[in-house]
Amino acid sequence: MRFVHSSDWQIGKTFAFAGDEALQALQAERLEVILRLGRLARKEGAATILVAGDVYDHESPSDRTLRQPLERMRQFPDIQWRLIPGNHDAHLPNGVWSRVLKAGLPDNVTAHLEPVPTPMNAGETAWLLPGVLTRRHTMTDTTAWMDGAATPEGAMRIGLAHGSVRGFSSDPSQQTNPVAPDRPDKAGLSYLALGDWHGFNRIGPRCAYSGSPECDRFDTGGAGGGESLLVTVDAPRAPPEITRHVTGRFLWREVSATLSSLEDVRALENRLRAIDPDEPSRVLARLKADGVLPLSAMAVFEESILGAVASALLLLRVDQTPETTATEADLGVFEGAGAISEAAARLTALAASGGPDQKHALPALRRLAALWRQESGA
């Protein structure tokens, strides 16, 4: 038995920090990755794709957003897609899954909305045991019923659930959507496919989180985001073979730098461009740059990092920029500039005064220097 394990598509997800262009690209790629999942299954000879919850990002998507993933899955009639609700798209009365059923599922797509064992193949040698969330947060384990679920003797039992094997509260009784990490042993599962965590996490020999197939946050960009799992189970109690496959397109990276010179700025530019020199438009970078730059180097930082590099990447999110100081060499740029030179000297004095105008003086001086360089060709 071979299948693809995926989860947390969160179709329709919004990214508050992204502008219109980046947001459209991110949302579109969450649909395109469904096609990559289908192609992966075909290439590897997997007849089934299990999606462990959070197909949708919220409970009330537009009709178009509701139908878009269904139409992508329809393009692979030779693949069976099996879905369960997650905490973002729990199976509420008259909720998103009621709308999905009303819209009509493709013949090759099954939404498992009740905890009922279901055969996964024609020979009924493998059975799916779905855990179903009927609210966003619950204190009960949706996999507990699997322990006593009846399946044919000798069948492979595959669990599918959405929740957390580890609570984030100091009080275990307050953990929501709990999943017992030893559920595969208690329920005699050949494999338990989990969703909720957005990065790959192997919980045990028979249990794993696939993570989101398209990364969606900076803190998982280098730790398993953008992957899906190919799982092979040869016998009910045989250890499953789990292979990680990269399915995400976008690269999310956190970059920190301390800048004090023009050389530091150039080095930072090279680091950002080196994330993907061949296709920088698939890079999202979160930048924290501290330190103090001379006025001339700050001008280069603004032009090369905030200007050129930011235009090359899909997104450059700048959380922190370095401070600026005006050196004698910086003020020398204005030599012979008459009134402009006098204005620069005045702004420099204000910047060093510590008075109420200090916070405005250096930005004004940077702007003045940039305009003068542009006018004079310096």
From TrEMBL:
- Answer yes or no on keyword Secreted: no
Pfam family membership, one: Metallophos
Domain Calcineurin-like phosphoesterase: where? 1-97
Task: Give the top-rank taxon of the lineage listed in the UniProt record for this protein.
Answer: Bacteria
Q: Which InterPro entries match?
A: Calcineurin-like_PHP, DNA_Repair-Maintenance_Comp, Metallo-depent_PP-like, Mre11_N, UCP033093_metalloPase
A Gene Ontology molecular function term for this protein is: exonuclease activity
The UniProt keyword set, sorted, is:
Exonuclease, Hydrolase, Nuclease
CDD domains, per this entry? MPP_Mre11_N
The protein's name: Exonuclease
* Species per Swiss-Prot/TrEMBL record: Acetobacter nitrogenifigens DSM 23921 = NBRC 105050
